[in-house]
């Protein structure tokens, strides 16, 4: 099994050596790769968000909810995701917090549903304006 892995790595290196880079400048290639990866990640994230939110609300309303996010919501979400992905303890803390919030919301289902609906409608209104 190890021999096949080494052969595959060698074959991949050989192919990589034959495929020309977009630019002869390695720094330009690094910038292009960074832009492509970030763009792909943003498109994937937007698609997943619309899919998850849109399953209950519909695609049009989901788009408005996502568009209506405040800068603070975006920054907090980014910070929490970064904490969760940087270390195992961070992932445990963030995952535990998400589990606790889910269980708390399930315990007080009626209040959580009405609070969430009100907040969602405010966010949809912000999304219509922007």
What percent of residues adopt helix (DSSP H or I)?
Answer: over 70%
Percentage beta strand:
under 5%
- The chain-level mean pLDDT equals 85
Q: What is the number of strand segments?
A: 0
- End-to-end CA span: 55 Å
Radius of gyration: 22 Å
Main beta-sheet annotation: none
General shape: elongated
**What is the count of helical runs?**
6
Structural class: mainly alpha
Question: What features would you describe in this structure?
Answer:
Residues 109-130 are annotated as: Disordered. The protein is an all-alpha fold and 130 residues long. It has two domains: 1-57, no CATH class; 68-130, no CATH class. 88% of the residues lie in helices and 0% in strands. It contains six helices and no strands. It has helices at 2-18, 26-57, 59-67, 71-86, 88-107, 109-129. Helix 2 (26-57) packs across helix 3 (59-67) and helix 4 packs across helix 5 (88-107).
In short:
Residues 109-130 are annotated as: Disordered. This protein is mainly α.
Provide tags for this entry.
2 domains
């Amino acid at each position: 099994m190890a021999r096949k892995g080494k052969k595959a790595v060698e074959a991949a290196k050989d192919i990589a050596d034959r495929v020309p880079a977009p630019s002869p400048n390695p720094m330009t290639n690094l910038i292009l790769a960074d832009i492509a990866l970030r763009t792909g990640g943003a498109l994937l994230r937007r698609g997943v968000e619309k899919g998850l939110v849109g399953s209950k609300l519909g695609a049009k309303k989901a788009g408005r909810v996502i568009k209506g996010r405040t800068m603070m919501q975006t920054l907090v979400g980014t910070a929490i995701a970064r904490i969760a992905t940087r270390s195992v303890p961070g992932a445990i803390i963030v995952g535990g917090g998400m589990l606790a919030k889910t269980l708390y919301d399930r315990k007080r289902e009626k209040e959580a549903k009405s609070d969430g609906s009100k907040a969602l409608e405010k966010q949809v209104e912000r999304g219509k304006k922007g």
